[in-house]
Design goal:
This protein is α+β, with helices and mostly antiparallel strands. The protein has five helices and three strands, in the order ααβααββα. Keywords: DNA-binding, Transcription, Transcription regulation.
Length: 110
């Protein structure tokens, strides 16, 4: 994953409304959710939702598909995993101690 793409995705998710939209879509599963339903859940104007969905689509985190008269939004789980993987791969990469240890009582680890 390119550094610029990661920065754009993190910037998009840095907005509380977009983060809420993304969270709703991630929770919705692979079938996604209609724009109308997302709007109901958030209680925001359609124009505001459209603006935020476009930003998420532009970064690749969300896709949209028209089904007859309904616009369905879906989280891209591939992009989500790539973003998380990029961050995890960087964890403690330059440290002598390696990644943090979750086990209690370990003296080594960051």
């Amino acid at each position: 994953m390119r550094h610029e793409q990661v920065a754009a995705q993190l910037e998009a998710l840095g907005n509380p409304t977009r983060l809420n939209i993304y969270r709703i879509l991630v929770r919705a599963g692979a079938e996604g959710m209609s724009v109308g339903r997302v709007q109901e859940k958030l209680g925001i104007p359609a124009s505001t939702l459209s603006h935020h969905c476009k930003r998420l689509c532009d970064t690749g985190l969300v896709s949209q598909e028209r089904q007859a008269t309904t616009l369905i939004c879906r989280a891209s789980y591939t992009q989500m995993q790539a973003l998380i993987g990029y961050l995890v791969d960087e964890c403690c990469a330059d440290a002598d101690c390696g990644p943090p240890r979750a086990e209690p009582g370990r003296s080594k680890g960051c």
